[in-house]
Each structure stands twice: as structure tokens, then as C-alpha cells.
Amino acid sequence: MKNKKSVVVAMSGGVDSSVAAARLVDEGYKVTGVHLALSKEKTVSGTKGCCTLDDARDARRVADRLGIPFYVWDLSERFQEDVMQNFLDEYAAGRTPNPCMRCNEKIKFQAVLERSLELGFDAVATGHWAKIVDSPNGPLLYRSEDEAKDQSYVLSVLNQEQLAKTLLPLAGSTKPELRKEAEARGLVTAFKPDSHDICFIPDGDTAKFLHKHLGNKKGNIVDIETNEVLGEHDGIFEFTVGQRKGLGLTVPRKDGAARYVVSTDVKTNTVMVGLPAFLRVDVVGGTNLIWCGPVKESPFDCGAQVRAHSDRIQATAFHKDGNLTVEFKEPLQALAPGQTIALYEQDRVICSATVVSTNRA
Amino acid sequence: MAYLDHAATTPMLPEAVAAMTAEMVKVGNPSSLHGSGRKARRVVEEARETIAAALSAKPMDVVFTSGGTEANNLAIKGLYWARKKADAKRIRVLISAIEHHAVLDPVMWLGEHEKAQVEILPVGQDGILRVDTLRQAIEADPESVALVSVMWANNEVGTIQPIEELAEIAAEFDIPFHSDAVQAMAYLPIDLSKVKVTALTITAHKVGGPQGVGALVIKSDEKLEQVSHGGGQERDVRSGTLDAPAIAGFASAISILVSQRERRANRIKNLRDELIKRLKEAVPDCVINGDLEKRLPGNVHASFPGCEGDALLMLLDAQGVECSTGSACSAGIPQPSHVLLAMGRDEKIAKSSLRFSLGHTSTSEDIDELIVALPQIIDRAKRASARAKISK
Question: Which of A78, A110, A119 lies at the smallest CB-CB distance from B311?
């Protein structure tokens, strides 16, 4: 009986997962609410993160209201290792990681999913905005109806095995509809603002956080064309490819054109800057290839997305031995190693990979 | 449904509900001088007499509070401040390593803010404080001890402490001795005319009375600094309007308790022994923590190697079996129990434990429900816990 399934809903204390839980209850699932404690520190204030005491309380109140059991699961150690430490390691290695995707991959849809299945639950549900559709070839991942909220990109790290055990009850709604529904249901989270920042950096100051954990490491800022030293920096992790602001350069170019971060070099601790032309990307190399649907024969045409809400660029993808090469049909402007590239076929996510190299044609 | 968490709170006795609701419909502040006030005052004073009589104490010794935690805070801080005021050298506070947080935390607070020198006395692997441990700690410098606090019986593993002897030692050196008897009150005879306990904490909701009321029983000539200042109720050490209905319910529960204590304790002890026996049959590798003899009749505390206590609790809850991991939470995150750590268990075993506590409404059917549900739940919890290690 489909509707007798028992489901763990990851309840962050936000409106999305609140409504997700409510809808599953309505559909007759046996729902258990779980709030993930991701930090050992008791953070009280702030609506930005997803692991504060306030949020735990809100999640609990929604669960009370829905009449479902509610527990806090301590995943702080796993989160510390798999997400926060990885975040620092990646920056230290000169890459730009996406910790929320890492959290989806390692925490929500691995640690939590595995624990839930072993404990006898049938599936895990979240308040993510995307759609999972069953097909003869297994479950397929699609964009959500509300394009503005679509989170299929951040879920593109899930394989079919994970998708088969995942429920996303928000597909098919828009955010305004969802808030109205939450209000009608009398959920305390109906008007909570959306979270945007990285939950373990509640003040949003990533550079400060990185300095605190990685220290200061002075190096040079160098013009990629002339090799002229233009200035100093306190750590290359402050810089991301494509960044224009915060370079602190006092010597302007003769033609007055703005300079951008073009690349960083961990070995020499150097930040290379130059004209936007140097940011052009025609070919991307990726590793950690994850198929969100059936494996496609190489090569194939697709739409490539490199940020949570960026446009998709037409491309041709090649893959071999878990590595991916993507050739864009029109060049892309600025892409940092460490980011995720997700490939789409119309609105369906084909696969994703972590960017390791970017090249001009 | 099987409610196996009576140590957290136990159902109110119908007589206590009746006594309490009878007062709730009346008006009158026990401190008011008019007729309505006098009637409320009479209820409070008769309750005070009932509770004092149950403990062989004087009515004047009973200081009503909002519960066990407040009574503990009043005893610990009040006695410390009073003693230190009389003699500035007295800054040592001695407590056992298995105290409830309602004792442990105010003591640690005194250490951080009031220059108290906190000494935590180790217990044996059986969860019992040795008399000599206290003697040695005091004798190291008797003149500097402000107070000693040792619970009568432990809330997690149910072990009963040798309070009579411990209090005797403190009395020998004229040191005030406080005991948190919140868990003990329901099952153990407590005679304050014989035991040299200076201050005793009790609470209503562990004995069949309402939540939100308790008492510190402390000799009226003992100096105690006030902790909550205000209208001067309760000998000027605990200000605040007295909750006459709750106090009436408290006294009603206590009077019934005293008349039935022995019979009830025996019945529950037999159930408890049945639970332990069947638990060991159903889950042969489980380990019962704490001394089996010097133990509250309703307490079973067991570790289930290879499982996480909170996973077990959740799965039992889903089957309608309610118990506790026995340990405190920090923002909902389970911490390893300081009691089990003090008994020499490692963090993993400490986190793999559950407390089942029986009470006056418990039956054999409750145990049946637990034993039927448990084996499959243990399997699942073991798999989840093993999986977490592999995928790490």
C-alpha cells in the first residue's frame, strides 16, 4: 500500500519543509519529523542558517501541529567532517566549493537516508524544489514548476538509488502558493524569510570565516599578461575566479579597464588578474560524475548549468571512466574549479560533475 | 501503549486531582488577611503539616517551591552563601559525581561566579558513593567545607546512596548536608528525625501529585540566604504567592503514598524483576547498569551494545512504548550521561542506554509490549549504527 509508507521528513524549521511534511500527512503517509542538528554550538539568533535553536523550535511546533513524532538527530560530527572540513580543504586547495550541495550529497541523502532506511523507514522527504518522476528506467529528476525556486541543480548530486528513496512533495507549486498554504494550515513558519547564506557562516562573511580557520597567507596579485606584481593579498581563498571587487589594487590599467580574478595558484600562492577575455570558458573538465538518470552514451547534447540559478548553455558532453568533458556551443564567462556542472535534457537533470579544469578553445 | 517513564513523571492520583481541583475553584491568596485568604492559608498549612509528618519533620521546616530544581537551587546557593557569610574560609562544596543537573549545575555556577571550590566525589562502578570517599574529602580540611550534597537515589540508574552514614559524617564536622530525594520519596521511608540530613528536596509530580510544586525541607533554625526576593513568603527565603491548589494536591498524594508505600514498592519491585529477567532473555547481550540490590524498585537501566539509545527510543515510541535515554539534552542533541561516565562506562556504551521506569499504574502488560517490540528494534538500531560507521 503506497500510502502506508513511513517517511522521515527533514524539517529545517523553514516554511518549505513544513509544508512538505503537512502534505505527506494529508496523503496518508506515516510521517516522522527529524530536525538535523548540524552544529554543536547553540546558536540562538538568526533566521539565516538552518541549524539554530529557533529553527529547531519552529520545526517542533510544526510537527506538534501536524500531530507527528519529532526528533532531533545529531549529525554534527558528520557535518563537521564531510561539509565544513571539506569546505575549508577545498578553499585551501584553491577551489570554490558549494557546501549546500555537499550537504545534500553526504548528509541529507546519504547519512540521513541510510539511517532512515536501516531504522525501517521507507523513504526520506525534503522541502526541496524539484520533481522526481518514476519511469521504466528508474526515477528521473526534473526542474520544479516554479522556475524561480528551482533546486534541481543542488539535487543533481543524487544518483538513482538515492532518488528512488526520496520524496519531494513541493514539486508543482509556486512559492507564493506555498506560503498561502502554510498560513491556511496555521503553521508558525508561514512567513519566515527564506534562507540564503551558508548555515555555518550566519553573518555571511565567508572571508572572515576562512581567515579564522585557515589563517593569513600573504601572496602576490599578478597581472596575467605582464607578470607585473600589482598588489598583495592575505590568502588566495579570499578570491574566486570572476571576482572583480575587493582586489584592493591601486595601480589602474592604462586603458582604465577593470581587472578580474582569472585564476589562483596554490603552489605559488598567487592571484592572477586580467581582462574579462581571460575568463572565457569553452571547455570544462569534470570529475565525480553522478548520473541522476540512466547513463547516456557519449557524446550527447545537453544544456549545461554551472550555478544554482544561472541560464543553461547548449553544450556537447563526453564521458569516460567517471570523468566528464563539456564543450560549450557559446563561451561561458568565469567558472571556478570546485563548482558543480549539471547537465540537462530539456527540464530533466542528466548528470553532474565537479569542475576540475576550465579552458579556452 | 506502555508508559515506562515514571521517573520522568508519574500519573496523578485521582485523590490528588480531586484535592487540587477543589481548591482551584476558590479565591484567596494564602498571604491575605481576610476570610478568603485565611481559608487558602489553612489549606497550605494543613498540607505543610501532612508533608512534614510524612518525613518526621516539623511543619515549619517545609519550604514550598515550584519543584525539585528550585528547591535544589535554594538549598545549594542558600546554604553556601549563608555558610560563607558566617565564615569566609568555607568555600568547598562536595557533591557526588552522579548528581542531577539541578544540583550539579548550581554547584558549578557557584564555582564559576562565587569562588566556590567544587569537589566531585567519584562513585563505584555500581553507581554508589562510598562513605570513606566523603570522609576523606572532608577530613582533608573540614574547616573549609561549606556544604555537602548527595542525592538519596539516582534518577538514571536508580542506585540508593548510603545517606544515613554520609549525613552522619557531615554532622560529625558540623557541615550542612543536602540530599535530593526527588526520586527516593515515592519508594523509600525517609525519617528526618533520625537521619542527619540538613536539607531535603522533594517534588510532587514524582509521587502522584501535580507538576510545578515541590519543597525544600530544612530545619527552621538553619541559616539560609534567600534566592528569590520579594514578598517574604516561606520564612523570607522563598518569596512568591503560594500555589494553594497544587500544594493541596501535593499533600494529598503524599498522604496516600505514606499509607501505601511499602505495598506499592513491593509490587513494583516484582514487576521490575520480571522486566529485567525478560529483557535479558529477549536481548541476551544487554547490560543492566547500577547495583541490583541498592536500587529503586521501579528502575531498570540497560545498555544495548551496538545501538544508539536515541534510535531505540524513537523506534519504541513509534510502537507506543515510552521510555527515556535517561540523559540530558543540549539543544536536542543527546549527550553521553555523566552518571554512566562516572560509573566507568565509555561514551559509546553511555549513549547506547535506555531507562525504563515503572510506577503505580504499571502492569505486566506494559512489559509484554516492550518485550514484543524490542528484538526487531534492536536489530534495526544495530544495522543503522553499523551502517553509519561503514559509510563514514
Answer: A119
Whether residue B120 contacts residue B97, with contact meaning beta carbons closer than 8 Å, is answered with: yes
Count Cβ neighbours within 10 Å for each residue of B230-254 and write b for 16 or more, e otherwise. Answer: eeebbeebbebebbbbbbbbbbbbb
CA B386 to chain centre: 35
Each residue's pLDDT, cut to its tens digit, for chain A (361 residues) gives 445 799 999 999 999 999 999 999 999 999 999 999 887 665 544 434 445 678 888 999 999 999 999 999 989 899 999 999 999 999 999 899 999 999 999 999 999 999 999 999 999 999 999 999 999 999 999 999 888 889 999 999 999 999 999 999 998 889 999 999 999 999 989 988 887 778 888 888 898 999 999 999 899 999 999 999 999 999 999 899 999 888 888 878 888 889 999 999 999 999 999 999 999 999 999 999 999 999 999 999 999 999 888 889 999 999 999 999 999 999 998 899 999 999 999 999 999 999 999 998 7
The chain B residue lying nearest A30, using CA atoms, is B318
According to DSSP, the β-strands at B2-3 and B321-322 are: parallel
Reply yes or no on whether B329 is catalytic: yes
Of B65, B107, B83, whose CA–CA distance to B238 is shortest? Answer: B65
**DSSP 8-state code for residue B283:** S
Q: Would the CB atoms of A111 and B315 count as touching at under 8 Å?
A: no
Among B343, B255, B284, which residue's Cα sits nearest to residue B46?
A: B255
Question: Which residues from B are below 8 Å from A32, CB to CB?
Answer: 314, 318
Is A179 an 8 Å CB contact of chain B? no
How many CB pairs (< 8 A) connect A and B? 52
Mutation site for A-interface testing, chosen from B307, B310, B313, B314 by largest number of A Cβ within 10 Å: B314
ipTM of the complex, rounded to two decimals: 0.85
The C-alpha of A70 sits at a distance from chain B's nearest C-alpha, in angstroms, of 9
Name the residue in chain A with its Cα closest to that of B381. Answer: A119
- Please give the grid coordinates belonging to residue A302: 545537453
* Nearest residue, CB atoms, A118 vs list B317, B330, B380: B380
**Interface contact A37, partner B, CB < 8 A:** yes
Does the beta-carbon distance from B317 to A69 stay under 8 Å?
A: yes
Give the residue among B80, B75, B64, B68 at the shortest CA–CA distance from B234.
B64
* pTM assigned to the model: 0.88
